[in-house]
Design goal:
The chain is mostly helical. The chain is built from 16 helices and no strands.
């Protein structure tokens, strides 16, 4: 029995770097190999829908894994559970690199997604251990903005690897990422306040799930942030086909187009960190859902009427990502702050719903892609409208104005 020592001062630079890497586990695991998906499909003899499944199964397993790693970190501590997750992640990355066919690749990606979920769910819980309310949202926004540098550079690095090697080298880079993050865990201090306090049981996980989803404010935060993220992931699932096949951008230049739109998420996250202490969570989320909806409508206009152009598509996606950067960190911390004594469990539930939505939206985008922009633009608009619904659920009549 015991509890971790809760630290309220800001983490050191090395600890902050590890937290950024943990938060970035999902982003780097998807974004780094996007440019290689068409060549992966050609090499393994599969179509776009099957190749896109390497994204969807990753995200589906990522969603489930958070329900496991979050409660485990509440009971056993943040660091040992993160170490187990990163070790499994690295093994799975090696299996992806060596997979001889699409079947084994999908199994390895499923395991990798499950293991990768340990990163962000534990990082969010560590932030909640240290900070509260708007301060937690501010610090999480800072982390998210810094983390956005990773997916900003990952597609470019992936494109370079594709130029010199092939898609398997991209998974080799993910193996290196996992090992380096695992080594970096030594710089973190244990922050969990509930080590050994509550018995660990699967029923407790289900109870946490039920108690979170029975809270109107928690559901509002999940819809607001999770839907904005799902809309962005819809683009991630379709980007290589739309940019390379539809718009004719060479695969080796794909990373630069992705870098442009990811600056939207990074800008939204950094802006959120600066403005949320001044104007509060409510107004920050309002700006976020408006940006996400505006970006989706720009894409829908091109998909239905004007026809796609590279500049117009990138503008719409940039705005959508900007909205995600404003919504997601604040929604995460707002939801988790509803359950201060079970931050890991609440973080797991939020992450499960968020990534389950992203996986479903991404699967739908892959299976409806018809060589045009229209299916992707419709799905992204639906995600943005769900984010608006979450905001209205939170703040209709000002009854849900919490945490600023």
């Amino acid at each position: 029995m015991g509890s971790g020592v809760v630290e309220h001062e800001a983490p050191s630079r090395s600890a902050r770097a590890v937290l950024i890497a943990l938060v970035a586990c999902a982003a780097v695991s998807t974004d780094l190999y996007l440019s290689g998906i068409p060549s992966l499909a050609a090499d393994l003899g599969v179509g776009p829908a099957e190749a896109q499944l390497t994204l969807s199964v990753f995200m589906a397993a990522f969603a489930v894994g958070q329900l496991v790693f979050g409660p485990l970190s509440d009971h056993y501590g943040r660091k040992p559970v993160a170490a187990i997750g990163l070790s499994l992640y690295s093994v799975a990355a090696l299996a992806c690199m060596l997979a001889p066919g699409i079947g084994l690749l999908l199994v390895a990606r499923c395991v990798q997604g499950f293991a990768a979920s340990s990163g962000p769910v534990i990082a969010r819980a560590i932030v909640r251990d240290r900070f509260q309310g708007a301060e937690a949202a501010r610090f999480m926004s800072q982390l998210a903005g810094a983390m956005a540098v990773v997916p900003l550079l990952a597609p470019v690095l992936g494109s370079w690897l594709l130029y010199w090697f092939d898609w398997r080298a991209q998974f080799g880079m993910l193996l290196l990422f996992g090992l380096l993050t695992l080594l970096g865990l030594r710089s973190l201090r244990e922050t969990c306040p509930s080590i050994g306090i509550a018995p660990l049981a699967f029923g407790r996980v289900i109870a946490q799930f039920g108690s979170c989803l029975s809270q109107r404010r928690f559901v509002g935060f999940v819809l607001c942030g999770g839907s904005a993220f799902a809309a962005a992931f819809t683009w991630i699932s379709s980007a290589s086909w739309i940019v390379i096949d539809l718009l004719g951008v060479p695969a080796t230049h794909f990373g630069y187009t992705f870098m442009l739109v990811v600056t939207g998420y990074m800008g939204g996250s950094f802006a959120s960190a600066r403005i949320v202490p001044r104007i509060g969570v409510q107004r920050t989320l309002l700006f976020g859902v408006c940006a996400a909806l505006g970006g989706a409508l720009i894409l829908l206009l091109q998909g239905v009427w004007l026809g796609p152009s590279l500049g117009g598509v990138l503008l719409g996606v940039f705005c959508s990502f900007l909205g995600g950067g404003l919504c997601l960190p604040n929604s995460q911390m707002g939801a988790i702050s509803e359950f201060p004594m079970s931050a890991g469990g609440a973080s797991a539930v939020f992450g499960f719903v968020q990534t389950a939505m992203a996986s479903g939206f991404g699967w739908l985008a892959g299976h409806t892609y018809d060589g045009s922009l229209l299916p992707t633009s419709i799905i992204m608009t639906a995600g943005a409208l769900c984010a608006v619904t979450g905001y209205l659920l939170l703040y209709a009549g000002r009854g849900g104005n919490v945490h600023g």
